[in-house]
Amino acid sequence: METLTYRDALRRALAEAMTEDADIVVIGEEVGRYGGAYGVTKDLIQTFGPDRMIDTPISEPAIVGVAVGAAMTGLRPVAELMYIDFLGMSMDQLANQAAKIRYMFGGQIGVPMVLRTQGGTGRSAGAQHSQSLEAWVMHTPGLRLAMPATVADAYHLLRHSLTLPDPVVFIEHKALYARKEAVDLTAPVPPWGKAAVRRIGDDLVIVTYSRQLHFALEAAARLAETGIEATVIDLRTLNPLDIDTLRAEVERVGKAMVVSEGALTAGVAAELSSRISEECFDFLEQPVVRLAGEDVPIAVSPALEGASVPGVDLIVQTAERLVRW
Amino acid sequence: MQSAEAGQDSGGATGDAGHNRALADLYRTMRRIRSFEERVGELFLRGESAGSMLHLSIGEEAAAAGICAGMRPQDSFTTHHRGHGIFLARGAEPQRMMAEIAGKRDGYCHGKGGSMHIADMGLGHLGANAIVGGGIPAVVGAGLSSKRKRLGSVSVAFFGDGAMQQGILYESMNMAALWDLPVLFVCINNQYGMGTRVDQATRATDFEKRAQAFGLDGRAVDGLDVEAVRQVAGEMIDAARAGRPGFLTVSCYRFFGHARMDKSPYRDASEEAEGRKKDPVAFARDRLIAEALADAATLDQLDAEIGREMDASIEFAIAAEAPEQAAMFRDVFAAGEPEPEPLRTRLDRVLARR
After folding, report:
1. Which of A6, A81, B81, B350 is 20 to 30 Å from B304 by CA-CA measure?
2. Across the beta sheet with A237-239, what order do the strands follow?
């Protein structure tokens, strides 16, 4: 066992993958000399040099577009978008190009690139630096989507993403970079595309991913003190989506709640809730409840920012109402 | 497949013999493009094309033939939505192109891409694009691969004057210049972005100056004269291969409407008549005859042969089969990955549980 931060695990995954695969290059703003806005790529330029840690001008559409072309011609680029909010700049290259190239061209070629970015609240970064836009990605056929919550998954999901034949959007959470865990990175983790059942209980199922996993686990611990036992599922990847694990747990327990930081309407929580309702209708004792971001932009004020996304208290209160309906 | 159309520069020979062959080859390439595009129009009129979003490059043949003559087999390229001619000039098979335009299984992309998304990795075609400017940054990525992996390849982005007003072009030109990449940007200025004439889209129509401002070798050439295009493109592709990226704007006139349903109400007949005088195919033909490099009867015979070849592409496309329904779920992800669950399968499963 060793103690690592989420940031350290990401950096180690990148460094090991780059050592093993000379075709991996990192392309983005401040990824080289600066070391990444959140320090993920710190010092990698000393090992791999500026030809593989490629600092770009501030040109988010071209960062993604160049990665697409490089991926089609023999490299395995890791494009970095400093904030997922910048996806608004890059969406053509991601959704119209990267996601569709294999299909449009009849399967001739894939785009083996990883788009690393980070999202979420927690730093008073304001409405243009705090969003959870995973629904934009999940809504686009052709893209894989990984959202690690734990230190071990930050490492393993990134390593695995760097072996895949199709474009992967890899969304980190800005509030998790400094999170420390004692981990053994040689210990097995669920395979790519399988959810992790992080806690088992018989009273309700909480389905979540990314930072909300930690809120859900804290809530589950508090609920246990009042006699409510929750199952907590960490999806790990939203594409592939592990419906089998969801179905098995929800059918066993009969009550489900989905927790996501993304905005409520037409969001990931809506999709998960709908899938569970369709797949498990006969087993559900209550409606599937969505806890998601309020349908508002994210405010800078910590008082408003924190209240605009689910948290431990809301999960606990909602679980109690759901179980004692 | 002719060597000139496979990307070999047959104009490299010196002396009259080389010149003769070069112009004759370029003429042949341009005539094939013209004839193919005419057949695309016919396919549409016969109701056999997949839709009406067919953008003909008639009037722009010199750009395709002249630039592709300077490319080598290992070179790659992307095109805009008006890219049939470029692909043909790079060696595409007309039958498979026409089948793709008809949305058939035997097309280059098995009927999934069509006219605007045709591609072929074997010929270095990284894809036509229906987003104006959308394919431009990919050549910068290809240039990065070429440089890092020492492939010795150049990547060429072909786009229209419409893309000159898209931001992605400037990001891409800036990076190519900054990193000394083996890349050539080619603007085929046919004077119109759909129905908007170029002077209605910008006050600065000397596009090469914009490229020069980014540190690229920016040049302009008249797309009437295919030999002039070939000459300047050859120099610029060689320079790009040596790490000096460039930008070339080729002026021409779009003879017909934007797409098949467009009757060009935004321009009058006299303008069109004037514009169509700028015909690179007729210009090359006249020069071949004037310089006694070919006689009219020989060229007529060549034109007729090409016409028959292109007629056959229509018949091939019409006879070809549509993709099977199961192909819909293929190629979203790599082969071997689970395919998306069809809606009907999911409904059957969900409703059977009741």
Report:
1. B81
2. A53-55, A24-28, A76-81, A114-119, A168-173, A144-146, A237-239
- C-alpha A173: how far from chain center: 7
Whether residue A155 is contained in a domain is answered as: yes
Whether A298 is covered by a domain: the verdict is: yes
Provide the pLDDT confidence category of residue A325 given band limits of 50, 70 and 90. Answer: confident
**Number of domains present in the structure of chain A:** 2
Is position A189 within any domain? no
Let me know whether A277 and A298 are in one domain. yes
Q: What is the CA radius of gyration of chain B?
A: 21
Judged by a CB distance cut-off of 8 A, whether residue A240 touches chain B is: yes
Per-residue pLDDT of A286-307, as tens digits, reads 999 999 999 999 999 999 999 9
pLDDT at A236 over 50: yes
ipTM of the complex: 0.96
User: Does the N-terminal peptide bond of residue A112 adopt cis geometry, omega within 30 degrees of 0?
Assistant: no
Please, is B161 exposed, middle or buried when counting C-beta atoms within 10 Å of its C-beta (0-12, 13-18, 19+)?
buried
Q: Are B115 and B54 in contact (CB under 8 A)?
A: yes
Look-up: residue for tokens 């119109």? B192
Spell out a b/e string for B212-237, using b for 16 or more CB atoms within 10 Å of the CB, else e.
eebebbbbbbebbbbbebbbbbbebb
A60 and A18 in one domain?
yes
Q: Residue A145 belongs to what domain range?
A: 2-183
CATH number at residue A278: 3.40.50.920
Q: Which amino acid is at A304?
A: L
**Most distant CA atoms of chain A, gap in Å:** 60
Compute how many other C-beta atoms are within 10 angstroms of the C-beta atom of residue B273: 9
Q: Which tens digit of pLDDT belongs to each residue from A60-117? A: 999 999 999 999 999 999 999 999 999 999 999 999 999 999 999 999 999 999 999 9
Please tell me which residue of chain B has the smallest CA distance to A104.
B113
Q: Which residues contact B194 (CB under 8 A, 6 or more apart)?
A: B162, B258, B262
How far is residue A120's CA from residue A111's CA, in Å, rounded to a whole number? Answer: 27
Does A60 qualify as catalytic in the annotation?
yes
Q: Is A278 a catalytic residue?
A: no
Contact B144 A142 (CB under 8 A): no
Segment B83-142, tens digit of pLDDT? 999 999 999 999 999 999 999 999 999 999 999 999 999 999 999 999 999 999 999 999
How near does any CA of chain A get to the CA of B325, in Å?
14
CB contact under 8 A, B168 and A65: yes
In a domain, A129, yes or no: yes
Selected for mutation to probe chain B from A52, A54, A73, A246 (highest B CB count within 10 Å) is: A73
CB contact under 8 A, A166 and B353: no
Interchain contact, A106 vs B109, CB within 8 Å: yes
| CA pair distance B260, B240, nearest whole angstrom | 36
Residue B316: domain span: 4-352
